[in-house]
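Appendix B. Extra example for self-study. Work through it before the problem class; the solution is given directly after the inputs so you can check yourself.
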Amino acid sequence: MKGKTHHPRPGEDVATLSGGLTRRDLMQRAGVLGLAAAFTGLGGIEALQAAGFDMKKYAGTKINILMTGDENDHRALADMAPKFAEETGMELEITSPALGALIEKTLQNLKAEKSSFDLIEYLGFLTTQQVGGGYYEQLNAYIDDPAKTPPDWDFNDIIPAALKNVGIFDMASGAVGKGKDIYGIPGLHSGSVIYFYRKDLFDAAGLQPAKTWDEFKAAAQKLHTDDVAGCSFIGANDFSLAAVDWYTRFITTGGALMTGSAKEKNFKPQVNSKEGIAALQMLIDLLPYAPKNVTKYGFAENVDGFSTGKIAQMIFWSTIAGPILNSENSMVADKTGTTPVPSGDGKSPRAIQGGWGVGIPKNIDPAKKDAAWLALTWITNKAVNRYSIEKYNIDANRSSAFNDPELVAKFPYLKDALTAIETADTIPTSLIPEFFQLNDVMNVEFNAALIGTQDAKTACEKVQTQWEAILRKAGHLA
Amino acid sequence: MSPGVETSMGLAVPAARTKFVFGKRDEPGRAIWLLLGPCLLYLIVFSIYPLFHSLRLSLTDLTAATGTGNFVGLANYRALLSDPQFWNAARNSAIMVVCSVTLQVVLGVALAMFFNLQLRGAWIVRGILLLPMLMTPIVVGVMWRALLNPDWGLVNWAIRHVGLTPPDWLGSIGMSMVTVILVDTWQWTPFVFIIVFARLQALSQDVFEAAQVDGAGPFVTFRRITLPMLMPAIVFAGVFRAVDAFRSFDLIYGLSYGGPARSTTTLSFFSFQNGFQFQNYGYAAAVAYMMLLILAVGTTVMLKYVQIRPGDTR
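Solution. Structure tokens for the complete assembly:
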């Protein structure tokens, strides 16, 4: 099915209108047509043709892309697929399973004699596993070749931190972000963590948004009422408990998660360091000022809680800014402010680097590689980036989109989101394939500490012991 | 051409002793293969091959990282036996099976006895009662998670409305397994009920009338006559439910996601996590085979020692 995903989402409107279009399709395509008209006005395809670049040189080719179905990326791309077909003459087939199935399907294809997918979107946390495995085509030659890359694609516009996180890889040392070899293009979104706070409540209490964790706690204490929690965080056994709330506090107070390297077999965790224990203790100390059921709060509960005005402040993935600042979804859209995350005294604000990359598997039909590259440049171009932000509030990966005056006026959080991405930290455990297993151990033990069955020190010691066992078994720690 | 009798229209009909429609008279094997072949092929492709493939997988160290699994013999099984998380999952599975099946059998039999009274309008209630088991467990899990939501769940609202404090259904280590068992019981008690009720309806009334003539009271009748006669149905429902509860995955996935602190992580969920979250395929396959082993032994023991028929002394 051209330009459609295989998986309708729960709750998706599937009412079919005449002509076989769903109501959702119709609305989406109408939106895309409007945008297309705007782009044509700016020059778009005509400008490229005038510059002598033939966007339709691979017309008739079908490009299969495997990408995440857990985010909004596939929706944005499905919306844009008709325009892709119009401008390139190619057809885009989108397959978008959930993360677990995506990883399995990706690995099957990368290791097969021939990949069924011409483009694959991979999670930044898996760059080492997937790019480091040598499965993706090196892209430098494509980027540098004006005959293959549209002149308006503007490689330099891509946020360097996002490119380092998912695109640049040094095969010799197995290091992400080192050297100049490029194997993937950031897409379709990047992202990190920013600080959300209720401007009205802070103003009324004479408070400034917290710059340090002490100020964060003090504000939580002061703002906490029966109706509004002074703060919130991911307290449930959820990926983001460790990745967002603990890790941000940990690295902004001087913590370093690992020492040594997996290659040298001395990759040693530092979860039970004083910074590690203190970061967890900070969360435990916030429990009296958090929602009563915060130990069951995952992603959705926090977004719902903040949007309905029940939370005064929290740090969170910048990707939620869209729904929270959109008055159609949020009761506090015009009362919410954002800034970079707080930090320890004298430390810089920074958080974990999120995001995805897109690459061309080496094992696709050689005759399709140039077409796949052209498709890759199209889906990561400025127009798609802009559309992704505007329609779905996806944290895209181009400076131009984050700095677009019209978008910034509409979504002021973009400035902070861009800063967060530019300063974000690639979590060291993402450099080894056991990343998700390590993260799970942390979430289970930290959640148990928040529930009250163990203290912060015990939880961190338990994580340390289990991590060391996992790392030893995998051969990363002698 | 096969030997036969020529008719007046020149058509040959099979001789009277021809046994096989599809094969020649002297080649019965061909017909048998034609009839059984598709079934055998189906079994080989979809059951036997995956079973052997996963067994082979459980003897390798295949992970997403290595890509090619090396043969490691029984190393995964040895690692399992010394893995506290495996024993935690095994314990949770055992608790879930024992508690939920016991509850379901007791409630299912009680409901069957009640509906056997043939009260007016009972068929309507009986129909409604069966609805939960028609739902997919993942939907049941998600639905109950919403109903039990501590902030806006309907159940908690109702409990608070009558002035009580709702328990921390899915947030406390002690309560979460109880919640999983209760939801499983809500969904599957109707299954036990319908099996036992069908058996109850089929029992001969002569025995009960004779008991009545002999002066047996309701309790004695139930204990000495009804229950023994229902035993085959109860054992069938119990074993079926035990196997199903032991494999339970989707309810856990939708309701508690194995938490908090792995308090509801069953063996199925543990296998899923290792296979599909951590990509430790060899280890996950070993967990699945351990489950198969436990199930095979458990079912055999259960069927051997539980008295199925009155007077059966196996």
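Self-check: The two ends of chain A are 51 Å apart (CA to CA). If your reasoning did not lead you there, revisit section 3.
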